[in-house]
Design a protein that fits this description.
Largest sheet: 6 strands, antiparallel
Radius of gyration: 30 Å
């Protein structure tokens, strides 16, 4: 029986998944509500013949014979016939009538397009068009244009500007921003509870199936994989519920990959960014554009990111990798602390691609051709989505030297071909870099904070003004201690031929950290503590977790098991608060893109806060 692939281990994995699903839906707070309280608003597409003001009035309860309010008087001006969206805030209440007019004494001709009413939660409540506009006695003419999609309101000779009423079938009740925020939070919590219940139901079903097949020597592959996938989804859901209940763009997802693809008619798969190819994000952008509905683009991007995460987790748990405690080792891919920028977005899906490449390089030979096909697919997708296939070429070479099989040579040659394409792109788009004034022992101490410090909960001090206080003797001690642990604790993978895999894993973790120094040449200390650069330490932290897991067992020397257990306990005691990741605020992507008129441009905020996307709505 393969080590760690027992029914007991499989059952414990389901228990972890059930606890994560229950916690994700019931214990931890829901996703962050809207980033800011937005009032009810009426957006009107219009343009004026000359500079002036337009004002929106709305009647409450009894029309204009009863209470009424002024939304705002806003300046407008000529724009060569281009309609501009003007937004009027509207207070809570039961609205029965609308009136749009220009300031008294300044009659101007105004061309009106569509008008849209949104409530405080950002949902579209009503739309109005040229057929709904009725002119008052001050209007001399209402001239249709643009195939009936707009109307020009020409003022008459009477005092005052033209007044236009909006036809409305019945009263519309609008709530306030506080109530809308509470309603939105309630909806999101309801979605969380539904997802948690679904995951729990699937896990219970798998447990029942496993109980009926408990006389088998080990869980069958399909049942093992199903349990792993559902448990992984549950763990990620517990760490970041919005990944399932409220998919959103993250950083370059939108401002680079989505925006560039939306602006071009052809697929941009071969276009580099940051000096190298990004196949996975380009695929996500191509799929989102092919789907056609920009409001669903974040969900499509999130779906692609989920595929990369689950692919990496499944491959680590593969029987060809054959690591000790395979279920725990696979779940460690999504359990490394401080994964705020890694889960779940395609911009950083390449880091799960790095894990996938490692698993391919360290796998035993595939007994069937489909295994080789899977290796080739992983090399192409992950290798062309980041620089890691270039950095990991020594790992593939090491695998050839240790395994001495034809298949390992074929895999290494495939990795070399993919690395050649990525390296050629990197050289053609290289940028001059330097390490500034940092001294070598300071750089080594930074690596120590990101390796040994990650597992012992030791981080440098923040001195203020963005300066990181890297105490280099402490960092050096952490690095030396981390290396000593790797030297003393063994780690062997494989069944047919067990191989010590410490050297390739150590290389993979260190080469990524060292490769990050040129990018942070101006302030290398930021690499030691910044949560938003945690991605560079992900592989090193994951490899350390695998090293510790590999030293738990009855047949292993008790001193090594004791050290592994001690480090694991310190890690759990100091980093447990990092399990729940920062919630992404909801910027209302769907309603914002749907509110942009065809051919118009809008600035839409995306995550992380502070990022803005210039969205260009496609023409009709």
């Amino acid at each position: 029986m393969m080590a760690g692939r027992t029914w007991r281990a499989w059952a414990w994995m389901l228990v972890i998944g059930a606890a994560a699903a229950w916690g994700g839906g019931m214990i931890w707070p829901s996703v962050a509500p809207r980033a800011e309280a937005r009032p009810n608003r009426m957006e009107i597409d219009l343009v004026a013949q000359r500079a002036g003001e337009v004002a929106l009035y709305y009647g409450l309860w009894a029309g204009f014979g009863g209470p009424f309010r002024s939304a705002a008087a806003l300046p407008v001006g000529p724009a060569e016939g281009t309609l501009t969206s003007v937004s009027f805030p509207v207070a809570a209440g039961r609205v029965v009538a609308w009136r749009l007019d220009t300031a008294v004494g300044q009659p101007i001709a105004v061309t009106l397009g569509e008008a849209r009413l949104y409530d405080a939660s950002g949902d579209l409540v009503a739309t109005y068009g040229p057929d709904d506009y009725v002119g008052s006695s001050q209007v001399a003419e209402m001239r249709r244009g643009a195939e009936g999609r707009r109307v020009t309101v020409v003022p008459g000779n009477e005092a005052g500007g033209p007044v236009v009423f909006f036809r409305q079938d019945g009263p519309i009740t609008l709530g306030d921003a506080t109530a809308a925020g509470a309603m939105q939070a309630g909806r999101l919590m309801g979605r969380q509870a539904w997802v948690a219940g679904t995951l729990l139901g699937v896990l219970v079903t798998l447990a029942v199936v496993g109980w009926r097949r408990r006389r088998d020597p080990m869980p069958p592959v399909w049942l093992e994989g199903a349990g792993l996938v559902v448990t992984t989804v549950a763990v990620v859901f517990a760490r970041r519920p919005e990944a399932l209940v409220l998919p959103q763009f993250w950083s370059e997802d939108s401002v680079i990959f989505w925006a560039e693809q939306a602006a071009h008619g052809h697929w941009l798969g071969a276009q580099p960014f940051a000096g190298y190819l990004h196949l996975v994000p380009r695929l996500a952008a191509g799929l989102a554009k092919a789907w056609g509905d920009a409001a669903l683009a974040p969900a499509i991007f999130g779906g692609v990111a989920w595929v990369m995460i689950l692919w990496a987790v499944a491959r680590v748990a593969s029987r060809r990798v054959a690591m000790p405690w395979p279920y725990a080792g696979a779940l460690a891919v999504v359990l490394v602390p401080a994964m705020d920028e890694l889960l779940v977005n395609v911009t950083n899906a390449q880091w799960f691609g790095a894990v996938l490449l490692l698993a391919v390089a360290l796998s035993e030979d595939a007994p069937e051709k489909r295994g080789v096909v899977g290796d080739v697919a992983a090399l192409i997708v992950a290798g062309l989505s980041g620089p890691f296939v270039v950095l990991f070429l020594p790992v593939f070479g090491w695998a050839v030297w240790r395994r001495r099989s034809r298949q390992s040579v074929v895999v290494a040659l495939g990795a070399g071909l993919v690395a050649g394409a990525q390296l050629a792109t990197m050289l053609a788009n290289r940028q001059a870099t330097a390490l500034g004034d940092a001294r070598w022992w300071e750089l080594v101490s930074i690596v120590g904070y990101r390796t040994g410090g990650e597992w012992l909960g030791i981080a440098p001090r923040i001195l203020g003004d963005g300066v990181v206080g890297v105490v280099w003797p402490i960092g050096l001690a952490l690095f030396v201690g981390w290396l000593a642990m790797w030297a003393w604790l063994p780690l062997r993978w494989g069944t047919a031929k067990s191989i010590d895999v410490r050297l390739p894993l150590l290389w993979a973790g260190l080469v990524i950290l060292v490769g990050a120094f040129p990018r942070y040449a101006a302030n290398p200390g930021a690499l030691a503590t910044g949560i938003w650069v945690q991605r560079y330490a992900h592989v090193a932290a994951l490899a350390t977790g695998w090293l510790l897991l590999g030293n738990f067992g009855r047949d292993l020397p008790w001193r090594r098991t004791l050290l592994a257990a001690l480090v694991m306990l310190i890690f759990l005691g100091t980093r447990w608060s990092d399990f729940r990741l920062h919630a992404w605020p909801d910027f209302g992507w769907a309603e914002q893109v749907r509110a942009v008129a065809p051919g118009e441009t809008a600035r839409i905020p995306v995550n992380p806060p502070g990022w803005i996307l210039e969205y260009h709505a496609p023409p009709d």
